[in-house]
Amino acid sequence: MRVVLLTHNFPRWPGDISGSFLGTLATALARRGIEVSVVAPSDEGRGGEETVDDVRVRRVRYASPRLETLAYRGTMAGALAKPGGWRALAGLWRALRRAAREEVSAGADLVHAHWWVPAGLAAPADVPLVITVHGTDAALLRRSRVARRMARPVFARARVVTTVSRELAGWVQNATGRHIAATHVHPMPVDTSEWPWTTGGGGAVVVARLTAQKRINLAIDTMSFVASCGHDLPLTIVGDGPERPALERQVERLGIAPLVRFVGAVAPGEVAGFLARADLMLAPAQGEGFGLAAAEALMAGVPVVACWDGGGLLDVVPETGAGRLTLPSAEALSDATLDLLQDPERLTLARLVGESWRARLSPEHVAEVCEGWYLQAAGD
Fold first, then answer.
1. Which of 30, 208, 331, 361 is the most exposed place for a label (fewest CB within 10 A)?
2. Cα(212)–Cα(224) distance, rounded to whole angstroms?
């Protein structure tokens, strides 16, 4: 079977955080004997073809180098809200579609589009199509009538539509009318084969892009509240983003700078190192598509505290035992944090849950799931 992975986000170099899970997936599919080719955009003029781990990656040019900034940076949704954003997207769409058609003409059996926009829109109409919705593209469906009108024909012609969480399945169904079967809800892979289990002792950790939706300010308020109760719990914040300056000022204002460390963005392979001594993870985000960071924490044996309005996080974080779910307030999160820390079985229970997630998200298992989707889409 020959499959084209069509996407706007695929690793550009070893350790690149952009679309890293797709690099893991492509390699695992190749190990199953599936012939995989990847079509992705160029990045500021850096295009061309290369073969990585038996996967051919083709990066297509869609604008002048100065303007090729629509992909890889997590800014596509924001760009679509600006004048000319959809026009820029049209150029990317045309380039992806042209390359995908060439791959189909060369013998590809189907296209697996990751994110319905732009990849789903760009998929040729004359080949079986699988679409996977990851989060930002589903959020676009919720807030834009234009996006919903554009998406409905794409979802209607796809033979298989998948999402990475039940939360996203509901968003897609409400926006497009396309039913997402339970067998078509599955997260993307994480390679944890070299990950250690936490030994604890390092305090709390946050792993997130520093945006308003992640509510890192709530995690900082929680640490301040915990400190006011007589518990100096260190907090390590892994990630970067536009909210960082405001968050740093918040830490100074609350007088907890000795307890809080900002690490900045790290490569996916480095996350395990920060989890290896963590006592717990705070995941206060609202409306998550899945909650990968929380799953990664559990796969390191780190229990997680999250909020009831966390969206896809509710697929991941247990209400008791290896985690706590609570109201989105510093006081409630503080109570949940202290309750979890006082449980002597928390790391043992988190490891049990983590072992299940390691099996479910292993590259080999996810590749097997995807192959089942491909056979269904191809009618075999």
1. 331
2. 19
Burial of 13 (0-12, 13-18, 19+ CB in 10 A): exposed
User: Does the domain made of 2-189+362-378 have the CATH classification 3.40.50.360?
Assistant: no
- Tell me the two tokens of residue 107: 């013998």
What are the structural domain ranges in the chain?
2-189+362-378, 204-360
How much of the chain, in percent, has pLDDT values that exceed 70?
A: 96
Angle between helices 20-31 and 363-378 (to 10 degrees): 70
* Amino acid residing at 7: T
> What is the distance between the terminal CA atoms of the chain, rounded to a whole angstrom?
11
pLDDT by residue (tens digit) across 94-140? 999 999 999 999 999 999 999 999 999 999 988 999 999 998 899 88
pTM greater than 0.85 (yes/no):
yes
Instruction: Specify the CATH number for 204-360; select among 3.40.50.2000, 3.30.565.10, 3.30.950.30, 3.40.50.620.
Output: 3.40.50.2000
User: Which parts of the chain register pLDDT below 50?
Assistant: none
DSSP assignment of 11-75 equals -SSTT--TTHHHHHHHHHHHHTT-EEEEEEE-BTTB-EEEEETTEEEEEE--S-GGG--SSSSS-
**Quick one: three-class SS letters along 114-138?**
ECHHHHHHHCCCCCCEEEEECCHHH
Question: In sequence order, which residues have a C-beta less than 8 Å from that of residue 188 and are 6 or more positions away?
Answer: 21, 22, 24, 25, 132, 134, 164, 361, 366
In whole angstroms, what is the distance from residue 127 CA to residue 145 CA?
27
Sheet holding 129-133, edge to edge: 48-52, 55-60, 35-41, 2-6, 110-114, 129-133, 160-163
Four-residue CA torsion sign, 123, 363, 22, 75: positive
- Of 311, 140, 300, 82, the closest CA to residue 214 belongs to 311
